[in-house]
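so my prof wants the structure for this chain in the tokens format not the other one, which i didnt know existed until like an hour ago. anyway here's the sequence
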Amino acid sequence: MQSYKSTNRPNSGCFLAGLVFCVALQLLPVHALAQTVTEVQTVSITALPYPQSGLRKRLSAQGKSLPPVDASQQADIPGQYYPPMQTDTATPSHHPAIVALPDCDDSFPADWIRILRSHGIGVLLISPVQAHPSQIYCSEGSLDNPKHGLTYWAFDALSALNYLAKRDGIDPNRIGVFGYGYGAGAAQLAIYRKGHAKHFDQRFKALIGLRPQCMSEMDNFAPSLLVGVKDDPFNPPAWCHWRMDRDLGPGRKPVRFVVVESGETIEKQATRKVLSIETTPAIVSIVSDFMIDNGLAEKNVKN
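here's what i got, hopefully its the right format
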């Protein structure tokens, strides 16, 4: 476990080890991010057909009559596609891409959109919140309105993967997933070996989870990098440690978990804000190296 500490300065980032790096950060909802990049494209991702479970397949093979699957949550998913930034090195004709999953309030750090694009990566930021508006994801569900978030969001991510794999100019074998907060928990389910991903041939190359909610198992199809914040009450690192200790074993894809330390106040979950520690040079370098090592970025475009 590695730890980096930032000073308690709201809306600024200061990196220890002798370097000072202060930036103004934004945490914007999907619809607001569209206004920050002129070439952004508004898209609608068709939801994949919900896969048939193993039990239903067995019962169907036995000639049993089965009730229909509830497809009420399978709405098309709105999103914003951000093409790679032009760099000194020409962008390859088929570039990598990332599906970005926002936090429970539909927000995603704008700086990470910029950082990913600067690596020659196309970013598809989807909005499961808008696809499934009946859900309230930053608070508890109820008996009459249960919260189906993680599983549906994971399926939305797989639908977005299928969309990107067919999009012109994108390398279908180099598509990753980047989740933030609640979205990081959903992203983990999208690569879970025993989850929805097993029903599809197209799979994510790697996963990055920032301030993840580790609420899913970690026997994954793809390697993952998780970056947590010490003492984060809504995304506690202890959950990730418990999952890793329980689920990681021989033959499973590696999970790297980095814990950072911040003196900033973490607000209540329904009014979340980005922390300056999240985009310090140390964290950007860790994420960049992970993307390079797993084929999502090239060395010659690393910042």
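also thought this was worth mentioning. The domain at 5-45+72-301 is CATH 3.40.50.1820 (Rossmann fold).
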